[in-house]
Amino acid sequence: MPDYDGAVTEATNSGAVTSPAKRGRGEKSSPTIYDIARLAGVNPSTVSRALSKPGRVSAKTQKIIEDAAEQLNYRVNPFARALPTGRTQTIGLIVADITNPTFFDIIRGAETTGSARDYTLVLAESAESPETELVAARRMLSTVDGLILASPRMDDEKILALAADKPVAVINREIEGVPCVVPDVNKGINQAVRSLASNGHQELAYVAGPPQSWMSSRRWEGVQAACDWYKLGAVRLESSKPTVDGGRQVARDVLASGATAVITYNDLLAIGLMQELQAAGMHVPDQISIVGFDDIFGADFTTPPLTTVRSPLGECGSLAATLLLDMLLGQDGPAEAVRVDTELVVRGSSGRLIA
Amino acid sequence: MPDYDGAVTEATNSGAVTSPAKRGRGEKSSPTIYDIARLAGVNPSTVSRALSKPGRVSAKTQKIIEDAAEQLNYRVNPFARALPTGRTQTIGLIVADITNPTFFDIIRGAETTGSARDYTLVLAESAESPETELVAARRMLSTVDGLILASPRMDDEKILALAADKPVAVINREIEGVPCVVPDVNKGINQAVRSLASNGHQELAYVAGPPQSWMSSRRWEGVQAACDWYKLGAVRLESSKPTVDGGRQVARDVLASGATAVITYNDLLAIGLMQELQAAGMHVPDQISIVGFDDIFGADFTTPPLTTVRSPLGECGSLAATLLLDMLLGQDGPAEAVRVDTELVVRGSSGRLIA
DNA sequence: ACCGATCTGTCAACCGGTTGCCAACTATTG
DNA sequence: CAATAGTTGGCAACCGGTTGACAGATCGGT
Question: Helix A267-279 vs helix A244-257: angle between axes, to the nearest 10 degrees?
Fold first, then answer.
């Protein structure tokens, strides 16, 4: 069965190198259902039904219309369809930072899942700013069928307001009444802290992420709880930004804290921190152990390779897209957050403390 | 002056957690120019002109209408606007692989430049397949005002066919009649080969990228020319895919080639190659020097950090977007490809050959 | 005060689909 | 064979802006 939402056929264009055909009136613009109707000898509305409402027209007419459509190489005009229906076959995704590898897998997961169900992904970034994020979200909301917010920085109430308008799914944050996909950090954190404790560490530092980050708070809580259990001291340090550079800047505070093990909000911080500590002559992991979060691209390039708590980010993106698309089909979102597992990936940046 | 293309105002929504308002008829859907017209006591067409054709209506009426629009928190319906005009205020970007860091900066560059001129970026990936790329391009073309192809894999003629339809800009490839942004690899390659020659290398291997990659061929040509000049032997090796994994797989061939210096099509290959060679006991750079391409995120995380020929990818994305947007304003594209400079970034993975 | 030029707002058609409603047609059944 | 139920196709209104054509209003110049 041909797919009128994205048919591909060889255009009989012999490589003219003029400027693109202007959309002027009377130009040879793309065929419409009216063209098909004329060719098939039926009413345009019948064509519309044949192409989008399966079963509404008789098999015979259906066939005639489909043949005519194919002959004309017809493709629906998405705007004409969107105008009366509001449906656009697109979903929006807003990430905090396009160049942060953490989001790569989320983007790909959402894109792949969306494509598989004939939805196009529209991407925007918030540059880690709650305001920019809200602007982007509002602008998007009018053009997409639903929205995925990955690690949103704006307030819960803003998100709820958006969700009241169109379906919204959230990754890396839990909000009552909005479908969420959240890595359950406790398992991974417990593994990490246990591993550090068994390697002789007694004082641990957590380098936090952006203050608006819900996930950063959860991770800190998880670290505190695990440290309590394993009888480690835990101190929280702030970072200026959740990037490699932010990690370098926080190195001073880490040293000053006296901790021998560090868990950072994300891998970028961990990498920057490790670089700076090594530049200052510290030995990782002999003198200080470093554990990151997310297992991003590049985490295993470092020397030593980074120990990290892996979240299945691709799966998060894919799950969020699935949740969203199911909601678009009229299903209710899940009653509570969908949790995915995290796990410790032990590499070389953590290990026995050599006093 | 308020911006009706993306106004943000506090919605007076008190956090109801029901499912999103359905787009049913008669719902409290968003205000239209008809609502404004009624409120302002003018004709809808006047409203339309006031909001989009500066100068066409009197200052007084303009003011009245703008006030009414603001009062109603009006925002244009993009579909209604797109239907008669064809303009959508979006540009499409197709990349070969979303998770390849090479494209991160391109994406961000295009996104930033687009946003600054009130265009939204729509992203798709081709998964390195010419067919998928064409499908994605065709699907996009009907919904965007223009298209950027980053490192396209499809044939020139296909691209020309697309370009005949809507403005297209291309990155990392040169096609007669289509505006292109192309890093001029020769400068960087010359620096690289000279550096390698001066470090005692005599046999060099180039690890090629995907066969459809125009840029891979240019790089190979550049390497050949430079090796000729500096009197080095040059051999070309094929990779299965332009990823870290592909780099690992080609390590065997590199060793078999007897080359003491390797230039790879991109950094991912270089990183994988280096990992595999080191795992096999080789010492980088004492026994073999490795030079990558692009200076992607993470290239400096490796041990030793990667020497690489940097292309200003962010600038490429930004330039391509600028070219495209200028064409949308009616300007002609540049007569020939826009070239940006490349330069060698010397890090630890290349150096003196210790025989 | 008159006249043409310019400005400003209105009318109506249009972009290309979707859909409620109705009439005609087909099939089923008594 | 007629009555009834179920299908199928057509008509026309509608989604929300844009725009060419035009007429009334305004204005400057003489």
Answer: 60
Residues 215-244 of B with CB under 8 A from A: none
CB neighbours of residue A104 within 10 Å? 25
Chain A touched by B8 (CB under 8 Å)? yes
d(CA A273, CA A265): 12
- Which helix H or strand E contains A206, and what residues bound it? strand A203-207
Residue B26 pLDDT class (50, 70, 90 cuts)? very low
**pLDDT at residue A18 greater than cutoff 70:** no
Q: Do B139 and A121 touch (CB under 8 A)?
A: no
Rounded to whole angstroms, how far apart are CA atoms A96 and A101? Answer: 11
Taking the CA atoms of residue A294, residue A295, residue A297 and residue A302 in that order, the dihedral angle to the nearest 10 degrees is 130
Q: What does R_g of chain A's alpha carbons equal in angstroms?
A: 26
Are residues A234 and A303 both part of a single domain?
A: yes
Which amino acid is present at B237? L
A112 touches strand D (CB under 7 A): no
Q: Which of A41, A76, A111 represents a domain boundary (last residue)?
A: A76
Domain boundary among the residues A9, A44, A76 is at A76
**Residue A206: C-alpha distances to residues A203, B35, B136, B228 (Å):** 10, 54, 43, 55
**Same domain, yes or no: B174 and B224:** no
pLDDT at B16 over 60: no
User: Per the CB < 8 Å rule, is B79 touching A99?
Assistant: no
Q: How much is the pLDDT for B54?
A: 81
For residues B62 and B1, the answer to whether their CB atoms sit within 8 Å is no
Q: Do A160 and B83 touch (CB under 8 A)?
A: no
CA-CA distance, B33 to B47, in Å (whole number)?
Answer: 6
Residues 152-181 of B with CB under 8 A from A: 157, 160-161, 163-167, 176-177
Instruction: Compute the residue count for chain B.
Output: 355
- Residue A248 at interface with chain B, using a CB cutoff of 8 Å: no
Q: How many CB atoms lie within 10 A of CB A131?
A: 12
- Closest chain B residue by Cα to residue A100: B104
- Tens digits of per-residue pLDDT, A321-333? 999 999 998 888 8
In this structure, chain A runs to a length of 355
Residues 6+ apart with CB under 8 A from B65: B36, B40, B42, B46, B47, B50, B51, B57
Q: Where are the beta strands (DSSP E) in B111-202?
A: 120-125, 146-150, 168-171, 180-184
- pLDDT digits 0-9 by tens, B125-140: 888 899 999 988 988 8
Domain region containing B235? 184-311
Cβ within 8 Å of residue B237, ≥6 positions away: B205, B206, B207, B208, B250, B253, B254, B257
Q: What are phi and psi of A199, to 5 degrees?
A: -95, 15
